[in-house]
Design brief:
By secondary structure, the protein is of the alpha+beta class. Helices cover about 50% and strands about 10% of the residues. The structure holds protoporphyrin IX containing FE. Protoporphyrin IX containing FE binds near residues 104, 245, 291 and 292. This is Cytochrome P450.
């Protein structure tokens, strides 16, 4: 048996340099070995930094997402947890079959590709409105004015929040999902907003029961599979999951993706000249900029061997999908952004039974937003030196706090040099 090298994962990523550019840190971890040891949130555990092992664990039923399914494992749900938090930790991403299959089947129906494709026009309209507002300013914070409000507006409308409540709802979600609120104190401060959101969603569910509409909450309320339905707590838990899993991730795809293009002017130029490269460009942004660093932890149901290392049953495994996406053995010239890359089997949306439910929506939003932004602004430049950009202190989700850009709208480029 091989002994796994020990690392301190938390410490590896806590410096501002590592947050700004995690590529060398991931390279170092991959070099240390296919299986590493580290202390994680769930106690002593293992870390997988390479592509092959990450994918193989993601499709291996010997690993559980729900700790209760591991011998001696306990639920993440605790008696002292506020009810609202218990709803979050009981969401389907932390469940295994058959519970997971049941919940996923019920929501999948409400989340069909056709339903998502139908949103194209509306996503384009919201994008144009946001750009109309941005165009009036010489410096735009792309996060605040574009990347954040776009997915938030889309999801509020998708859920079927009535028009008069939408502004309040968006403000409330922005507070609950405040990316700066990662400390325990910030969590406590945020708690009243969570309660308000919980009450808001329960009222929305009741409204859509009485007045069905052409929206996701109505579809979830009506979703039925073999006489089975989601009960009210499951419904709220599902809506929370959609809000949490779908929001900051998409925000980061747009923010990180645009920054990557600005920092690789040859790729930006190529995309401007060949707009039909947008689909492969988005896949490459997903791979290279890694909006999500790691998936939910997996737990070994039995003793397992990975690359010669014994993983005792019950162990927690951290799967670094961001590192897998940069693995040279799976992606030639992995540390280069190449918008024409193909094949591009990145694992940014995960793999296997928990593969991202919202992937078509995230792709649609990026496919509409990024070309519209490029078209509106023939020049996009960082308004601050790159080393001044601030990254959020969250290893799981990689994103910027702000992205100040100096922009020149189409028709206003005279006198400025090309990017
Ligand atoms: C760029 C944007 C996104 C990225 C990178 C992303 C990434 C991921 C990843 C990696 C997983 C797998 C988690 C695991 O295996 O532990 C996942 C699951 C999930 N995502 Fe996304 N996501 C994005 C957008 C969205 C959107 C827009 C929604 C919905 C509105 C969404 C809803 C979900 C749900 C419900 C799951 C759980 C699926 C399951 O457990 O079966 N995601 N996502």
């Amino acid at each position: 048996m091989v002994e796994a090298v020990r690392v301190n994962l938390q410490r590896e990523f806590e410096t501002p340099e590592a947050r700004a550019n995690p590529i060398p840190v991931y390279a170092k971890l991959r070099k240390l070995g296919p299986v590493l040891r580290s202390t994680a949130l769930y106690g002593e555990g293992f870390v997988l930094p390479r592509y092959e092992e990450v994918v193989s664990v993601l499709k291996d039923p010997r690993f559980a997402n729900d700790r209760r399914n591991v011998p001696g494992g306990t639920s993440m749900d605790r008696w002292w947890m506020p009810a609202i938090l218990r709803l979050l930790v009981s969401s389907m991403v932390l469940k295994d079959p058959p519970d997971h299959r049941r919940l996923r089947n019920l929501v999948q129906k409400a989340f069909t590709p056709i339903m998502v494709e139908n949103l194209n026009g509306r996503v384009a309209q919201i994008t144009e409105e946001l750009l109309d507002a941005a165009v009036r300013k010489p410096v735009v914070d792309l996060m605040e004015e574009f990347a954040l409000p776009l997915p938030l507006t889309v999801i509020s409308e998708m859920l079927g929040v009535p028009e008069p409540d939408r502004i309040n709802f968006r403000k409330l979600i922005a507070k609950v999902l405040d990316p700066a609120a990662v400390s325990p104190i910030a969590f406590i401060r945020n708690y009243p907003h969570m309660l308000r959101l919980n009450r808001f969603l329960r009222r929305l569910v009741n409204l859509r029961r009485e007045q069905p509409g052409d929206d996701l909450v109505t579809a979830l309320v009506q979703a039925e599979e073999g006489g089975d339905r989601l009960d009210e707590d499951e419904l709220i838990s599902m809506i929370f999951l959609l809000l949490f899993a779908g929001h900051e991730t998409t925000v980061n795809l747009i923010g990180n993706g645009v920054l990557a293009l600005i920092r690789h002017p040859d790729q930006l130029q190529k995309l401007r000249e060949q707009p039909d490269l947008i689909d492969s460009a988005i896949e490459e942004m997903l791979r290279f900029t890694n909006p999500v660093g790691q998936v939910a932890p997996r737990f070994a149901r039995e003793d397992v061997e990975i690359a010669g290392v014994r993983i005792p049953k019950g162990s927690a495994i951290t799967l670094l999908i961001a590192s897998a996406n940069l693995d040279e053995t799976a992606f030639p010239n992995a540390d280069k952004l190449d918008i024409t890359r193909g094949p591009n089997r990145h694992v940014s949306f995960g793999y296997g039974i928990h593969y991202c439910l919202g992937a078509p929506l995230a792709r649609l939003e990026a496919r509409v937003a990024i070309p519209a932004l490029l078209q509106r602004f023939p020049r996009l430049d960082l308004a601050v030196p790159a080393e001044k950009l601030r990254w959020r202190p969250n290893m799981g989700l990689r994103g910027l706090e702000a992205l100040p850009l100096s922009v020149s709208p189409a028709g206003a480029t005279a006198g400025r040099s090309a990017a």
